Amino acid sequence: MEGKALTGEGTEPAAGGAGGEDAPEEGFKEADDIAEIHASIDAFKEIGEQLQKDLGEHGKKMARAFVVMVLNAKYSPATGKTTRKFENYRVLVGPQASIDAVNNACKEKIKGSFEVVERFQAI
Q1: Which domain holds residue 105?
Q2: Which of 60, 63, 72 is CA-nearest to residue 25?
Q3: Is 17 a domain residue?
C-alpha cells in the first residue's frame, strides 16, 4: 500500500454512515434515561396487578382490554449512541363506560416518560 489512500469504487464512506451524527429515527430520542425507564416498567408491573383487581368487572365486559409498555432501544456502533422509543399502549374495546373507567384509572396511576398510544373502540 506504500502509505497511499485507497481509491476507486466502493472505497468511499456510505452516506450517513460511520462518523456521521445522524438524527435519531422518527419517534426515537437519546437513551440517557434507560435506568429510569426500567424502574418505571418495574413499577408498572405492580400497578397493573392492582388495576386488574380494582377494574376486573370492567375488564370482563370488554372484548379487548390491555395496557402494555413497549421499550425499543437501538445502538449505533457508528456513533456509539443508543436511542430509544418508550410507549404505553392502551387498547380498550368494549362499553364506553368501561373504556372511560379503565382509561381514567390508567391516566391517574401510570406515570412515566413514555408516549401514550390510545386505541379505543366503543361497542
Answers
A1: 29-122
A2: 72
A3: no
Residue 2 placed within a domain: no
Could you tell me where the DSSP H helices lie in 17-114? 34-54, 56-60, 96-109
Q: What is the dihedral sign for C-alpha 22, 27, 32, 35? A: negative
**CATH number for 78:** 3.30.300
Q: Could you give the 3-state DSSP secondary structure of residue 94?
A: strand
Instruction: Work out the average pLDDT over 16-41.
Output: 75
The grid coordinates listed for 50 are 392492582
pTM, two decimal places: 0.72
Amino acid identity at 91:
V
CB 83 within 8 A of CB 29: yes
Q: What is the structure's pLDDT at 91?
A: 96
